[in-house]
Each structure stands twice: as C-alpha cells, then as structure tokens.
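PROTOCOL LOG
Step 1. Enter all chains and additional molecules of the complex.
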Amino acid sequence: MRTVNIGIVGIGTVGGGFVRLLQLHHDDYVRSYGVDLRIARACALDPARAEELGVSDVFTTDWRDVTGDPDVDIVIELIGGMHPAVDIFEDAFAHGKHVVSANKAMLSGEMGRLAGIAHANGVQLRCEAAVGGGIPIVEALEHALAGNSILTIAGIVNGTTNYMLTRMEREGLSFDEVLAQAQSLGYAEADPTADVDGLDAAAKAAILATIGFNTRVTRDDISLVEGIRGVSLEDVRVAAELGYRIKLLAIARRTSSGLDVRVHPAMIPVEHMLASVDGVYNAVYVVGDAVGETMLYGAGAGSYPTASAVMGDVLELATPIAHDRVPLPEAEPFPRVEPIRPAESLHDRYYIRLTVADEPGILAEVAGVFGRNGTSLQQVRQHGGSQGSTVQIVLVTHRTLERDVRASLDELRGTAGVAAIDSMIRVEDTQAWKRDAIEASSRV
Amino acid sequence: MRTVNIGIVGIGTVGGGFVRLLQLHHDDYVRSYGVDLRIARACALDPARAEELGVSDVFTTDWRDVTGDPDVDIVIELIGGMHPAVDIFEDAFAHGKHVVSANKAMLSGEMGRLAGIAHANGVQLRCEAAVGGGIPIVEALEHALAGNSILTIAGIVNGTTNYMLTRMEREGLSFDEVLAQAQSLGYAEADPTADVDGLDAAAKAAILATIGFNTRVTRDDISLVEGIRGVSLEDVRVAAELGYRIKLLAIARRTSSGLDVRVHPAMIPVEHMLASVDGVYNAVYVVGDAVGETMLYGAGAGSYPTASAVMGDVLELATPIAHDRVPLPEAEPFPRVEPIRPAESLHDRYYIRLTVADEPGILAEVAGVFGRNGTSLQQVRQHGGSQGSTVQIVLVTHRTLERDVRASLDELRGTAGVAAIDSMIRVEDTQAWKRDAIEASSRV
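Step 2. Run joint prediction.
Step 3. Record the structure below.
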C-alpha cells in the first residue's frame, strides 16, 4: 500500500471541511479501504487559515506548486469561479493528475472540453460535489443507473431558494422578508442573484443533463431560466389551495423533439416525493426506462456534506492508486447527440394570476383570449374579493404550448379591463413523468 | 475495445429483464461507454424460456458450462436460494470470473466468506440488486459516502409489506384482507413468510450493515426480527391519531455499546421522509457523520428495476475489461470489528395497546407496573368506548430499555384486570437519528 498524495487548492468552507474530515477519518480509511491519504500541498491566500487547519507545513499561495508537484496524485479544486480554476484543471491534467472539484459554475460551461483534456491525458475529472452537495447523484447517473436510458431528471438543487419557499409557505413571509432573513442567517449571499435568479440551479441542470444523457449541455444552452423573484406569497397560498407546492426545479427530459432542459419555479402536487423536500435540503428525482422512478435526497450544501462528496471522489481515485493500479481514465466525452428543444416549444400546464377590472363578462373575455390562442383551460376562477375597482382571477390551463400561452399573455396585456398579469407559473405534469417510466418499462 | 462476455444463470423475472434490457440498449452501451456486452452463455431449466428471450444458441441447463466457459468474463447469478447459487459463486471465482448477483437471502449469510474468496482470486463480487432493487444504495455506501462514518441506516426494504401497510392505512383493510389481495395481484407469494415475517428485510439489513459499517453482519446475528403479522388495523389507526405511520424498518445503527441491527414494524412521525414512502416503493435513509441525512428512494423489486441494478454492476466491471484493464479485485473483507448489541439492550420508545377490565383504577395500576419497572410514560389513555366489561388502553413510553418494557409486559400478563396485551410497536426517535448527524458534523 502506498500513500496517496492530495494537493488541495482552496481551504475555505468546503476545503476546510475536507481537511478536517480527513484528519478525523484518516485511520478509518487505512483500516477500511487500505488507503493512506496525505495532504501533500494546500494552497490558499491566507496562511492563518492553513495554521488553523494544521496544514501550514504544506502551505503555498501559488496553485502551480500544487499542480506541478511531482508527488501529488490528485488535485482538489475548491476555489470556484472561472479563473484560475480552469487553469488549475488544465495544468493538473497536463501533469497527469486527476482533478476533483465542486465548481458547478465553471464546469457547467467547461465540463465537456475539460473532460476531453482529462481523457487525452489518461486521468479523471470528478465532480460529485458540484450537484446536490453530499447527495450521490453524479455517481448514480454515471454508474448504478448507467444501464438505463434516462428519461426525466427533476431536481431541487438550490438550497437557498428551497429554504425561502419553505418559509414563505410555512410562515406566510414575503419574498423580501425571507430573503433578508436568509441573508442574516448566512443561507443567502449579500448578492443573492446566483441563487434567487436560478443561475446556480441552471449550472447544475447543465451538469445533470450532460451526465444523465451522455451528451454535452452547457449553461448557455438553457434558454429558459427563471428564478423565484416572481413568486409571491399569494402564489404560494393559491398553490396550496389547488393542491400544489411551488419548488424551483432544474428539469432535464428526453423528448421526441429533443432535450427539454430548463429551470423555473414549478407547481407540483403535494403528494409527489419532491414536494416533501423542505428547507435547505436538495433532492434529485430521476426516471430511467428500466429503473422507473428514483429519488436521491440530502443536504445540498454546507461544509461537511460537500466535503463528504469530495472525499467519495478522492477515495474512488485513491483506492486503485494505493494498490498500485492506474484509475481508468476519463471516458471520451461525447458531442451533443440530441438537440435542445427551444423553450417556446415546451408543452406544459400553466397557472396564471391576473388583476382585472371588476366588471361582468371579464372572466369570459379572458377565457376567450386563451381559447383563440389554442389553449384550453382546466379552471378559471375569481380569487379573493373585489379590491375597489379590480378583482383577481386565477386560471390553470390544460397542457398546451408555451408559445400559445405567451401569445395569450401578450394579447391580454393589450386588453382593456386587464390591469396586470401578476404571475405565470408552470404546473408540472408529474404523472406524465411517471407514465413515461411505466410505458418504457413495459416496452423493454 | 473488446467484447465483454456475460454468462447468466437464471433467466426468470430478473434474468429475463436483464436479457431484454441488454437487447434494447446494447448499441447505446457501445456508443456511450465503449462497452460491447454479449451474452455468451445462458443457463436455465427451461429451453422454451431461452427461446422466448432469443438466447437459445447459448443455452445450457448446466451452470458449470457458464462458470467454466473460458470466454465468460462476468457471471450473473439470478437463481436465488442457497444451492447451487453458492457453488456457482465459488466455481466462478475459482475460474477468475467476477460475479454479479441479486441473491440477498444467500448473501446475507455468506457475503463475508464469498468476498474473501473473490479477493483471493482477484475478482469482484457485486450485489447492488440485492437491496432495494434499482435503488443505488450499495454503490452509495461503498463509494460516494465512503468518506463518512455511517451512523444510522433505516430502510423500507420490503415492497410487499409496505404495500400491505399502505393499503391498510388508506383503505381500512385488515391484514388478512390485504394479504389475500396482495397474493392475488402477485405482490405477495403463496407462502408470504419471507416477506410478512421480516426475513427478507432481515437479509437486507445484514447486507446494509455489512457494507455500511465495513464489518461482517449475517442474518443470524440479528436477534430482533419481527414482521407485520402483529400489526392490526387498529394500530394503524391509532398511529395516525398520534401523528405516526407504521413502517416495517430494517435498522442498523452504530452505538457506543455496539451495532444495533434489527427489523420490526416501527411508528415514525408522518413528517419524516420515510413516512411518505408508499406502496411497493422502497427507500433507504442513511445518516453519515459528514453528509448528514440522505435518503435514496425507488422501486425495490420488479423485473426491470432489478435488472437496472444488475446492469449497473455489469457495466462497472465491463468498462475496464472492454478497455483491456483488469477491474480492481474485491477488497479484503473485514472481520467484525464491533459487537452486535443484544435486542434487550435496545433503548427505544414503545407503543402498547392493552385490553383491560372496565374498572376504576385500572389505568393507574397499569401505569404503576411500568413505573416500577423503570419506564416512564409519555401518555396513557383510554382508546374507544367500553366493550362490555372491557376497555382498551393505549400508552406510549418515553425512551426506555426494551428489557424493562418486556418485564412490564410479563408482569401485566399476570395482573388481574388485564385481559390481553394486544400489541407492542416500537416508536422510533427519528429526531435522535438526526441529532447524531448534527452533533457528529459539528465535531468534524
């Protein structure tokens, strides 16, 4: 058994958790897996942090000392962002080192290209920690579920927004109130854009689609990315009345007209497993043609949960190395084999809340607009009482094309008597996700 | 890329699903993973089945034709039972072949010994399909969660009993009614013992504990195995009133006094993720010291879900073989490092339903018996009205030792005025499972 040398770049929240986890369990890994892990290099900006973590003796401020160290077997990149993260990957691969990372933002654009470089250099790129924190979803898609044609992936992959939606629902707080509280508790950043505008979830959607469908989907391929800023407390309440909960979902589906990849708030039935995922927790629901419905649930962020995923990747690489084997290199990455379906071709159901003039016939007029644009309604109803001269209408469509709904909303904007289109939230047909699985299973 | 040859023994429900899944996706595996899988040998008793599956040309009735075939790389054992399954493993290993199996009953006793033989022969034993059907729980415990000290595993791992409990709860059917219906639908066997008496769940508990704790736990080590025959519709109803649902759980926990491994019906709070797992679905909840709480959910049985897990194992082995690498051999199996805690040392909460004489003072007398035996009660109440000369009492204890509860029940059996002890169901302290995780996480 030989010692496996780790070079770590970034010893902040996740990196520090990794260092402490290794200190706690080093001897367990020797005993259980025959793997002796050693931190051979630790790179960060602040020597005091290295001191605190007990890695001063291997500390450097230059990441090239890590990627270029001939003793280092595995480089862990945990600094995030574009540069120098991407340079660290490239230099580590060039030096024949495997890379483990949690960098979803960078990988959502660069994964395909970097996997190609890893493949060419005979090493691996592993990123379990990039999606769902400690939830073993990347491994499941790559390995245990590899025998399936994956049909649907739907994930709650952003803990901040799920925490906010949960508190809005449970405590009747507004978006602004709950955002301020999340910020004060450290669950949301001072600039919450990446979370609340869906950008973080979109990065994870790109990674999930890439791995799940053996194709290449980048963040920029996803045209439909909506966050939760437009979700009002009123919508959360009406959703509950209708038997739904609102969740920010990262969805990737295989359809006959291409890959349907998108991020937006969605109403899902309260009985669906995803609807029970509360607070900062994450979950990824996967339908495979053979396995049917599965769901993996857990902590989507945090120091130790994320470090757990990083350690899983490290141990996976270190086990063969410790036993003088060479880990299998990264598989040759695939070009995109399936087109991405444009968002306007989405076939979904829609919840729409409008403020209209409190006049007879307005409800029929609104319904008429949808009808003329090819959308049939499952329900239309007045919501709440009259607010002076206006009243609210809530409607839910049957399955229809997004472009037809958008045409209806455009027409309504020019309609006398329609004061405001307050919200439009997609209503996911979770039964269709399930039917796909059963049909596919009966076919095999 | 070289062809990887599969020898399959057993082409019934799961084996047939595997053959069909391979036929459906063979070309996808070539394209996606560079793996060309071929069924080189198929062994069964019935040539008509081989005909039906299109594998007549490689059909044999002698399993030694499979294990001894020099072309075969991977042997899949899907016949179940003890013999010749165990002989197939041994002969395949002796011939340097990897074995993939779903045989939980046999592996729950023999896994440690067989893993040792696999290790000695430089090959792997893989059994993802043995627990939770298509749910990737074995892989998660072995790989992605390998960096954790696993604290708690609690699984709904028997779909038949979960289906029965779900229907009892939803439709108010009795155990006997729902068993008869499950049998007519094919969800329960003509002899339902393995399912309803908890034996199948106990086999899976042994495998989960062995893998999760890197130790050796066999089916015979588990002294507390209770099925759901003792769960009456009345208990299901009272549980709902108390805010619980009754699930048959396979539990394995690391405690300061040894491993706590057991199978029994348990009341768990309706809010807990495991409580939402309905029908034939399975789920395994895992708490790791770093990752915290996670749960994996999916189809626990069935032809294609189980074949999905078998295919995941096969692809994992076949990927290096196809690329002229030798898969890492099975790790050296560990002897038991932690003792199994005896069931009577269990520290749990208990729900007890009694039929007692409808007389003043009886409730106080019953409470007194528990008090004298060191058990304090969280609630005692009369349940329902008087039934002639008797009445029912329901009580729930605080956390207490199982041996003290048993002593109380023994004393009550000899108490005048106690007509019957109708049921005793453990009430799991799921908050304690969670607290363990948080405490452990803050420690690392």
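Step 4. Note key features.
Chain A touches chain B through 66 residues (CB under 8 Å).
The CA atoms of residues 169 and 236 of chain A lie 6 Å apart.
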